[in-house]
Specification:
Structural class: mainly alpha
Shape: globular
Number of strands: 0
Helix content: over 70%
Radius of gyration: 19 Å
Distance between the termini: 38 Å
Length: 323
């Protein structure tokens, strides 16, 4: 048990480093991961299944009874994050249709599961983070294909229905199954809950290895464009992240909730975006999503660590003041 707890802590604490390391390995040795290249959808489905199983209904009900902050976060995600992604796609890649489509797709998917982890590390309101992620998950089957068809369709024809059904199968149904399992077999699921976070991260590792090994040839063929792609996706992550926090504070949202909104608006489920890009566009369209994945996890980890230090310093000052 202690060994498992130690492994969980190492994986969670150094998540960004693991992501970068696995990305490099998958790029350099893609042949090793051929057996798991078909497991991308299954890996993502597992993450959403575990999300459904781990949701705290009591905390969710508390947030639902006061939905103001959740609506602010979700509203910012589907306006500011989407708008920034579209502008960046048109500014940087108006002549590279597949890359532009990948940029737009990376900004029009639900928030990433790591947003919940980083909210926890940063001392933010985790219940709010999970509620916003759940709301995202329920509305994304409609909004993602709509935005992609509306804006990326200017570059490449995108069929709405296949994209809608794919998101439904990968995201919506596993989440509902997870919620059903928690309701039907509460005691058994309670025994699994402590491990859902690390299991989700391991499933994410499978997705990363699968996506990058699949996209390796496209990455290698377009290596000269990668610096521009990384610049574009860094702006795509940082602008909504900073904007979400600033707008939340301007609306007098409490600090813990503002931190949750910050990660929600900045971190998208780019593993899902990469999977959808490969299945509906091309492996080249998955490249921006892969780059965004590396950037949002790295930036997210750095921001969460800064808030964690600030959070601890605040506690120390408060305790000194009490003495």
């Amino acid at each position: 048990m202690k060994l498992l707890q130690a492994a969980t802590k190492i994986i969670s604490k150094y998540l960004a480093i693991w992501i970068v390391l696995l990305s490099v390995i998958a790029y350099l040795l893609p042949g090793l991961f051929i057996p798991i290249q078909s497991l991308t959808g299954a890996g993502l489905g597992t993450i959403f299944l575990l999300m459904g199983m781990s949701l705290s209904t009591d905390k969710l009900l508390q947030v639902i009874r006061r939905p103001k902050f959740a609506l602010i976060g979700v509203g910012l995600k589907w306006t500011m994050t989407v708008f920034v992604s579209i502008v960046i796609a048109y500014l940087f890649f108006s002549k590279e249709a597949e890359i532009a489509t990948g940029i737009i797709l990376a900004g029009t998917v639900p928030s990433g599961t790591s947003a919940n982890i980083y909210t926890f590390i940063a001392g933010g309101e985790v219940a709010l983070s999970i509620t916003m992620a759940t709301m995202d998950t329920f509305i994304s089957p409609l909004l993602t294909p709509t935005f992609v068809q509306m804006f990326a369709g200017q570059f490449i024809p995108i069929a709405f229905l296949p994209l809608f059904l794919n998101i439904l199968y990968i995201v919506f149904l596993p989440l509902l199954v997870g919620l059903f399992l928690q309701w039907k077999w509460t005691e058994k699921v309670e025994g699994i809950k402590p491990y859902t976070s690390v299991l989700s991260q391991l499933a994410l590792f499978v997705v990363i290895l699968s996506v990058i090994s699949n996209a390796q040839q496209s990455l290698a063929a377009n290596i000269a464009v990668l610096p521009i792609i990384f610049l574009a996706v860094t702006l795509q992550v940082c602008i909504p992240m900073a904007g979400g926090y600033v707008v939340a504070k301007a609306l007098k949202v409490r600090e813990v909730n503002a931190r949750a909104i910050l990660f929600h608006t900045g971190i998208c489920n780019t593993a899902l975006a990469a999977t959808l890009a490969m299945e509906h566009v091309s492996s080249l369209a998955a490249v921006p999503a892969v780059a965004n994945m590396v950037v949002n996890l790295t930036v997210g980890a750095a921001v969460a660590s800064l808030f964690e230090i600030k959070f601890k310093l605040g506690d120390e000052k408060a305790s000194l003041h009490e003495k």
